[in-house]
Design goal:
The protein has 2 helices and 10 strands, in the order ααββββββββββ. By secondary structure, it is mostly beta strands.
Length: about 170
């Protein structure tokens, strides 16, 4: 500071001071979301479903989609049993575009049900590929209790009714 004043460079001192304040006060990137599952259909074991989800980017980062980044933000899920043990998580559902902070998004997530019927918890979460699940850094996933029903087996091997038309010439 004295050196800069000696050489009458106090304008540079002010610029350096402002630069330092901005560098110190910069907030680190925050990845945070509000996720709501709007409707869950009746589900059968080992089937695929599209489930509508509402997402709000409540952090200060823009989420890049798979076209923009290798570390894209995708929507995904985990099935858990009654004890809380993870059963399986499946395909990622890419975001349709980049999502800016404080914006809402409605989309469908692709979900495959567990192979065995029973009561499960479906946790829908966001994932920054190769880095972290949003729930691991403080965001809350949507948690829904779901009853997975057994597939109905065929009750009849042959049709119940047959129509035979007999004609002559």
């Amino acid at each position: 500071s004295k050196l800069l004043r000696t050489f009458h460079l106090s304008k540079i001192e002010n610029k350096l001071y402002n630069f330092g304040l901005n560098a110190i006060s910069k907030k680190p990137p925050v990845y945070d979301a509000s996720i709501k599952v709007t409707r869950v259909p009746k589900m059968i074991e080992n089937e695929k479903y599209l489930i509508p989800v509402q997402i709000e980017n409540i952090g200060n980062c823009t989420w890049l989609n798979h076209k923009e980044s290798v570390n894209a933000v995708n929507l995904s899920y985990i099935w858990k049993d009654k004890s809380g043990k993870s059963i399986k998580f499946e395909e990622r559902t890419p975001l349709p575009g980049n999502e800016k902070p404080k914006k809402n998004l409605e989309m469908d997530i692709n979900v495959t049900t567990p192979p065995v019927s029973g009561n499960y918890v479906l946790e829908v979460d966001l994932l920054k590929e190769n880095e972290f699940w949003f729930s691991d850094i403080g965001s809350k996933p949507a948690k829904i209790s779901v009853e997975i029903k057994k597939k109905r087996e065929k009750q009849y091997e042959y049709p119940l009714v047959s129509v035979i038309v007999v004609t002559y010439n």
